[in-house]
Specification:
Blueprint lengths: L2 H13 L9 H4 L12 H15 L3 E5 L4 H12 L3 E4 L14 E4 L6 H5 L3 E4 L3 E3 L4 E4 L16 E7 L4 E2 L2 H7 L7 E3 L4 E3 L5 E3 L6 E7 L1
Parallel strand pairs: 1-12, 2-3, 2-4, 4-7, 5-8, 7-12
Antiparallel strand pairs: 5-6, 6-9, 10-11
């Protein structure tokens, strides 16, 4: 008798006296957790998002919609970016008048080609205030996952208040589980056993979030 057969035999014997239960899995376990932990209102929720984004070392900016092109142009200029990767569905008005050379997302781009791009600008699917998390789902204004993982500088535009939710349970209701979801809490970072923080290991070293009304 192999070890596998021995283990499976023990499992069968342990389950032999268990009563039959045809309750669907989604109903078998009570999930009475809170969908949100406080009612902060729109302004309070947006402020909490900004606070938690900054706590994760993201750089947060706020502006009105008509100020967005100027804001993005200024951020790219301050970064010294000579090229910016643009998803195919990013609104043209967002980068109107921005002088930085635009690079289209192409299917045949190699990681080395993407690494030569200075910045990437995307929208988002939703932003979670309680965790300071930005979620991308591959929609046209966000592009494929890899364009936000290889370039070293990511500017993410969040529409306020439409795309801001208080908690993860509320966010999940808005997201399609079959889409390629990327959950971002601050710039890419990791720590070794001595807790020395290293940024930019598996994603952009710098994350800037623009909250747009």
């Amino acid at each position: 008798m192999s070890g596998r057969e021995r283990v499976l035999g023990r499992v069968r014997r342990a389950l032999a006296t268990a009563p039959d239960d045809d309750t669907p899995y989604e109903q078998a376990i009570a999930r009475g957790y809170l969908r949100r932990h406080a009612d902060l209102g729109v302004e309070g929720t947006v402020d909490l998002l900004a606070e938690n984004l900054a706590d994760y070392r993201a750089i947060v900016h706020r502006c009105a919609l008509d100020e967005l092109p100027g804001t993005l142009g200024r951020l790219l200029e301050l970064r010294g970016s000579r090229s910016v990767l643009v998803p195919p569905g990013l609104p043209e008005s967002w980068l109107a008048g921005v002088a930085t050379t635009r690079v289209d997302d192409r299917a045949d781009d190699t990681p080395h080609a993407l690494d030569r791009v200075d910045s990437v600008v995307t929208g988002c699917a939703v932003a979670v205030a309680e965790t300071g998390t930005i979620v991308l789902d591959g929609s046209p204004d966000q592009g494929r996952r890899r364009i936000t993982l290889v370039p070293d500088h990511h500017i993410c535009v969040v529409r306020v208040p439409d795309q801001v939710v208080p908690s993860v349970p509320v966010a999940l209701e808005r997201l399609a589980p079959a889409r390629p979801l990327t959950w971002i809490s601050g710039p890419s970072a990791t720590s070794d056993i001595e807790l020395d923080r290293v940024e930019g290991v598996h994603g952009p070293r710098t994350l800037e979030v623009v909250l747009v009304r």
